[in-house]
């Protein structure tokens, strides 16, 4: 059985992924991902031997913003190189895609107690290019 779930994700180390100085504060406006996973049931003549969850892929988009306060020319060059666009208000905005079919790794943390299987939370580690999906 295949499932697809949309979740908000927590994002870490976005500066490193974008190549922007760590002193520049990047606000994550939204980070939505689609988690595609399957549930496999192993049957035996006597009943069900095992129920397991397998991660197939995760894709998503991180929308970020940077306030123009205290930015120097080098910071602005890094921001624009990362795809940031200056808006009328002076705020820089950008989008970054994450896709486990394009260089990102999936890790899962599965701890099922009871009868429900659900994606509880998702974390995006931009420094390691790892997306961790917590299933509970």
Task: Give the arrangement of secondary structure elements.
Layout: E1 2-12, H1 14-18, E2 27-44, E3 47-66, H2 73-81, E4 85-86, E5 92-99, E6 105-110, E7 119-125, E8 130-135
Parallel strand pairs: 1-7, 6-8
Antiparallel strand pairs: 1-2, 2-3, 3-5, 4-5, 7-8
Features:
eight-stranded mixed sheet, mainly beta
Description of the molecule:
This protein is mainly beta and 136 residues long. Helices cover 10% and strands 57% of the residues. It contains two helices and eight strands, in the order E-H-E-E-H-E-E-E-E-E. The chain has helices at residues 14-18, 73-81, and strands at residues 2-12, 27-44, 47-66, 85-86, 92-99, 105-110, 119-125, 130-135. A hairpin with a 4-residue loop joins strand 7 and strand 8. The chain starts with a strand and ends with a strand. The model has no long low-confidence stretch (mean pLDDT 93).
Distance between the termini: 17 Å
Question: What's the gyration radius in Å?
Answer: 19 Å
Number of helices in the DSSP assignment: 2
Number of strands: 8
β-strand percent reads over 45%
User: Strand order across the biggest sheet?
Assistant: 4-5-3-2-1-7-8-6
Average pLDDT, all residues: 93
Structural class: mainly beta
> Could you describe the largest sheet, including whether it forms a barrel?
8 strands, mixed
Percent of residues in helices: 10-25%
Low-confidence stretches: none
């Amino acid at each position: 059985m295949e499932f697809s779930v949309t979740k908000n994700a927590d994002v870490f180390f976005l500066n490193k992924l974008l190549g922007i100085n760590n002193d520049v504060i990047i606000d994550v406006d939204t980070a939505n991902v689609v988690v595609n996973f399957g549930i496999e049931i192993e049957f035996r003549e006597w009943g069900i031997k095992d129920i397991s969850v397998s991660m197939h892929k995760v894709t998503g988009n991180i929308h970020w913003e940077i306030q123009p306060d205290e930015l120097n020319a080098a910071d602005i060059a890094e921001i624009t190189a990362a795809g940031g666009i200056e808006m009328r208000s002076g705020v820089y905005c950008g989008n970054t895609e994450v896709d486990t079919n394009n260089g990102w790794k999936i890790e899962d943390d599965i701890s099922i107690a009871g009868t429900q299987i659900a994606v509880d939370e998702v974390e995006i580690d931009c420094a390691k290019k790892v997306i961790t999906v917590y299933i509970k």
